[in-house]
Specification:
Layout lengths: L11 E5 L8 E4 L6 E3 L5 E3 L6 H9 L14 H9 L14 H11 L18 E3 L9 E5 L8 E10 L4 E5 L1
Antiparallel strand pairs: 1-8, 2-5, 2-6, 3-4, 6-7, 7-8
Length: 171
């Protein structure tokens, strides 16, 4: 079995980690107060306390979002890609969209995001935590090919089984 069990849709996937300390990095999203608008159009500062579980719950609303077979593209995926700067021939749901999905969820909740289509860009967001301290809703970044490669995958922690060496993620 390979390092990743890939999916063509937003789904909870399981990643098998043979050596937990050397296979990726997990980052906790920095939760800052959001500004909420009022009916009169004037934004009143209101502290909104978000937890990683709130982030996971928002991400889970996209379970089942998938690429469309053939020449068509899922407009939800295309909108996510557009928001991170993808244009032209790459603006289809066949373009890797894990980072665009994470960006969309974080931005929907008013949280910081690198606004990048690169999974590894999330290494510069939030506060890094050991994988053993990660909780559902934290962002997890996984390298591909080599730890110095620009390639990777990003999603939200669903669960961690340290004894079994698995991380289950959404994204």
């Amino acid at each position: 079995m390979g390092m990743f069990k890939k999916s063509l849709m937003i789904a909870i996937i399981m990643i098998f980690i043979p050596v937990l300390s050397g296979c990726g990095a997990a980052g906790a999203v920095v939760f800052e107060p959001a500004v909420v608008g009022t009916d009169d159009g004037v934004a009143d500062p209101v502290e909104v306390m978000l937890t990683p579980q709130d982030v996971f719950n928002e991400a889970a609303t996209y379970l089942g979002v998938a690429e469309v077979a053939g020449d068509q593209s899922n407009p939800t995926v295309v909108d996510m890609l557009y928001a991170v700067g993808i244009r032209g021939d790459e603006l289809t749901d066949s373009t890797a969209w894990c980072a665009a999905f994470v960006n969309h969820v974080l931005e929907t909740l008013g949280l910081s995001s690198p606004k990048s289509a690169l999974a590894r860009a999330y290494l510069n967001v939030g506060v890094g935590v050991p994988i053993s301290a990660a909780v559902p809703g934290d962002v997890v970044i996984i390298w591909r090919e080599s730890i110095s490669s620009w390639k990777g995958h990003v999603g939200f922690v669903h669960s961690i089984d340290l004894e079994g060496g698995t991380i289950t993620i959404l994204g």
